[in-house]
Amino acid sequence: MSSPIVTRRGAQQAKIQTRAMVKSKSASASSSSTATAAATNATSGPNANGSASSCGPRKTSPALQEAKRRARNMLKSQSNGQGSQLEPIIDIFQNAVNAKNMHRGATALIYDESMSEHCCLWDVTHQERPERFTRTMERCRELNLVDRCLQLKSRLATKDEILKLHSLEHYERLEQTSGVRNEEAMEELSSHYDAIYIHPSTFRLSLLASGSTIELIDQLLLGKAQNGMAIIRPPGHHAMKSEFNGYCYFNNVALAAQHALEAHRLQRILIIDYDVHHGQGTQRFFYNDSRVLYFSIHRYEHGSFWPNLQESDYHAIGSGPGTGYNFNVPLNAKGMGNGDYLAIFQQLLLPVAMEYQPELIIVSAGYDAALGCPEGEMEVTPACYPHLLNPLLHLANCRVAVVLEGGYCVESLSEGAALTLRALLGDPCPPLVERLELPSMELREAVLNCIYVHRPYWRCLQLQQTYTAAELESESATTAQLHRVKRIWLGGPPPEPDQRYPTRGTSAQLPEDVVARNAARLSVLRAETQLSVPAIRVCYAYDAQMLQHFNLHDATHPEQPMRIRQIHQMHDDYQLLGRMHQLPARAATTDEVCLAHTRAHVNSVRRLLGRSVEELQQMGSGYNSVYLHPRTFECATLASGSVLQAVDSVLRGQSRSGICNVRPPGHHAEPDQPHGFCIFNNIAIAAQYAIREFGLERILIVDWDVHHGNGTQHIFESNPKVLYMSIHRYEHGAFFPKGPAGNYDMVGKNAGRGFNVNIPWNKKGMGDLEYALAFQQLILPIAYEFNPQLVLVSAGFDAAIGDPLGGCKVTPEGYGLFTHWLSALAGGRIIVCLEGGYNVNSISYAMTMCTKTLLGDPVPTPQFLPAAQRSATVAFQSCVETLQLCVEQQHQYWKSLVFGCKLPQCVLGENNNEDFLAATMSQLSISNDNALGAVGGDGSQQPDPGQDRPSGSKPKVKVKTLTEFMAEHKEALEQQEMFAIYPLKSCPHLSQLRPEQAPKSINTSGACGDCGSTVENWMCLICQSIGCGRYINEHMEQHCRRAQHPLVLSFSDLSVWCYECNNYIDHPLLYVYQNLAHVDKFKEPMPWTHSCQQRTDGCYPIHLDAVDSNRQNNNNSNNHDHGGSGCSSNANTNNDDDDAGSGSGSGSGSDGVSYYIQLERNN
């Protein structure tokens, strides 16, 4: 039996074979003996199970020849050790299978008590003081966090480790201060550096901080711990290669990242820096390195906030190979709080992190943006930090390291750091006490500016539409619709080379009333933040009696008992049942069911018992997609009652969360009738029960079943206490349950307007990437603004890969990730209830991944990298359109959705960092143009941000060469999603061309002269006949063989093919024909891309070098100067300098070799 798993390689081979078979059918039948021999060969060959072609004495398909040639070359390169091994065909559920033995690991903690020695001897009021460390450790011990951690032994960094990034002079300069107690000398030395003091212990403790950070990274990468935190000082992210800066001496995080790159061979490290000051030191170390993505969120105020660098603005996106891998989110106002920071993570950081697929995440955790810090003057509450960290914890194989940086209000610092460690240990995120403030206008500007400059490099940042300069000038345009990119510089010139800095009285001070107000607010927040959690992580609802409901007339019906039995069995195989609290089953009472349904509906189902099989079939046929059984009422009430048991356990504080493995499903069931396999609406009953029995005011229902939950929507469409969010396949109303109810514009009725959010997919094939974007752009922002007290998930798994009804591609690990994201809400009170899903393997793995997530186990991260390297699929493009419509519809009800406006069209130029606004200069708003380094100002004296001194200049980024392009797409080339073709620079058949007799125009829409086809047509360059290609009816090839006219021009990509040489040709003689086609197709001349000078007569000599001669299969290599009619003998014949240039798919490498790049999509 053939495998049901379809791989990309298998699909490609099948496509080639199918084309060959189609062609062979059109050929004349061969003789009986030939057919018999062909059949015998096919049976004994490697494709014995396939259909044998019985074509006569006909040449092999060129497509099949090409496939065989590529396969031979691949095998040859592998045998020579030059290529990667073929990847084995693996189960589509392999990641879920691998997760079986993945259990929660330890959380590592590293610190050293001696770090409290570091202090400023001449200024006792200095804010970088020992209490930052001691109070943080005290709070961690108060919450019993330290004893729960794997405590690592601190160590000193070696000299070699420091010199990986810092200069020898820098190292020795600090080493010379070790043990020196001359305060006057140390203060004088400190005055040469910005915001620095030096203590006799500074050198040793700086080594200890760096060494401890490296040790933490080592332990994570060696698998000794799952995640960890380094509570260290002095901090490090401002330290540069040869300069102490901002309380920092050695750059702890940068050194650890470099160590991971070199010692552990990592290729993708994500550094997140949410210290309120920009970590310019870390940025400079990796500004040119794509292996490290640096993401900084910092107060900037247009350069007027320390460190007062232009390179801290959003336009600094990296340089060279690192272009696009440096993110700065500059905050241009004080007072930003939880809503602002959550928006940055949801709209920008999380999508980019998912696409980047890091192997390690390091957080430079400064808490000086926390409420009460005099430095940052921001208002992020301590309880918000776990919410920022939570969505990252299941990325990078859960390898997340948090390293302490700044934070100068010891109350908010100690609380924020302790709650961060608590989140690393797997405790639920505490509910946010205060109402979430909406993103500010300044934050909106910063995020949109950042998206604008980075969208050319990131597929996930394409959700905003674009506008042109003409649209901006139109009277109908409004400020809210069109975002205007601004750069304002309010900072001063860079420091003088010998500038001295103050060493006393440098700490920021707040007015006494502000300090008192912040202290009181922090006290209330600490008292009201709920940190106690139940010991039981997950309760589990299941009863075998629910197996008794089945279809009496169709044993193959997709909604069958095996669904929940297989899920239960897999939970047992993964040894999860013993780790959960097993809930006793009970049937929901009639009153409970009537919370969501009419009594008439309940009674009609109750009366099924005792009915004959024929009566049941007749009654079921009266509903939409429903079958009935004598035990239906018993099973349906048992399913609803089991969910109520989970609600009781969670809301009474007995369990943190719940898993309900129940059937029949419920979300289609209407108030007055069953619908779509559903009898009673389990989730709706549970929500109403929680409102009635526990007095809840805000319940979130997330329905990710591939079918719209029409019943749930109708039950709550006027109820503002229940926010219903459904993400489903819609197909413009043609997908079940059909009709307009599932469209994005259905927002609820009356008091419930805005509390119904539909995300309708209009194409099949949506996968982890599309669902993740829906969560990041809509579900999570709205959910946080709603602030639910309970989360109920209608967990249908029919959008899972392999489902026979859904047609989508969400992986089991994808469902696990979405569950993890939702578990940050409502203090972790989340109940996942089975709905649909009809591939028993898919639903079993998917529900198991959800359970493992709630139990705190790591789950493999969904792999987005290969998809991100390909062109956008039809599904992705449709996803973007849907999300744009949903945001536009919902933003009037949810103020967190402020990022849906249009951005200026971005044009990639030769110098993106310098000219990224040049295409829309009329939209710019620039202040202080004469400031040094500002846009339009004199930045010639400013060094590169990747260099050592402060700078506001923007590094120049050249257009990628083809060599860089090929290196960037190496994986796609190896996986045969893309391949490179080398065209010949010359061809002996070019002598048949007469450029002076070329037609005056070429109609690229012309039809085949034989069959009338307009698909994949070619034109003969000798006689200008038009014929269809080899994958249609092969009329062009037949013409060329018959007339001996070998050269043809493609109307698709303007490439030229020679049938005799069996290769693409690139030569200046072809330009006249290609240009005529280009003018017809694109209404403009084709650029001249050859290195020789363009001639007015279009005639050039034909020259074959030795390399090309070898490729000609012994064609006449003496025809060096077979120019066309009228070709001059003194023309430039040095064809080695000619670049490729024919067609839109051509390019040139630095070695002069030409390429055609062909990208195959298998959508």
From TrEMBL:
Domain UBP-type: 985-1087
Region (Disordered): 1-83, 932-956, 1110-1163
Keywords of the record: Actin-binding, Cell projection, Chromatin regulator, Cytoplasm, Cytoskeleton, Hydrolase, Metal-binding, Methylation, Nucleus, Phosphoprotein, Repeat, Repressor, Transcription, Transcription regulation, Transferase, Ubl conjugation, Ubl conjugation pathway, Zinc, Zinc-finger
Record-linked SUPFAM superfamilies: Arginase/deacetylase (SSF52768), RING/U-box (SSF57850)
Names of the cofactor(s): Zn(2+)
Keyword Protease part of the UniProt annotation: no
GO molecular function terms listed in the Swiss-Prot or TrEMBL record: actin binding; histone deacetylase activity, hydrolytic mechanism; transferase activity; zinc ion binding
GO BP of this protein: epigenetic regulation of gene expression; mitochondrion localization; negative regulation of cellular component organization; regulation of microtubule-based process; response to stress
One Pfam family cited in the UniProt record for this chain: Hist_deacetyl
Pathway(s): Protein modification; protein ubiquitination
Highest taxon in the source lineage: Eukaryota
Stretches with biased composition (Low complexity): 26-44, 940-952
Any Gene Ontology CC annotation: axon
Annotated catalysed reactions: N(6)-acetyl-L-lysyl-[protein] + H2O = L-lysyl-[protein] + acetate; N(6)-acetyl-L-lysyl-[alpha-tubulin] + H2O = L-lysyl-[alpha-tubulin] + acetate; N(6)-acetyl-L-lysyl-[histone] + H2O = L-lysyl-[histone] + acetate
Polar residues bias: start-end ranges: 45-54
Places the protein is found: Cell projection, Axon; Cell projection, Dendrite; Cytoplasm, Cytoskeleton, Cilium basal body; Cytoplasm, Cytoskeleton, Microtubule organizing center, Centrosome
UniProt xrefs under InterPro entries: HDACs, His_deacetylse_dom, His_deacetylse_dom_sf, Ureohydrolase_dom_sf, Znf_RING/FYVE/PHD, Znf_UBP
Family in the record: Belongs to the histone deacetylase family. HD type 2 subfamily.
Name of the protein in its database record: Protein deacetylase HDAC6
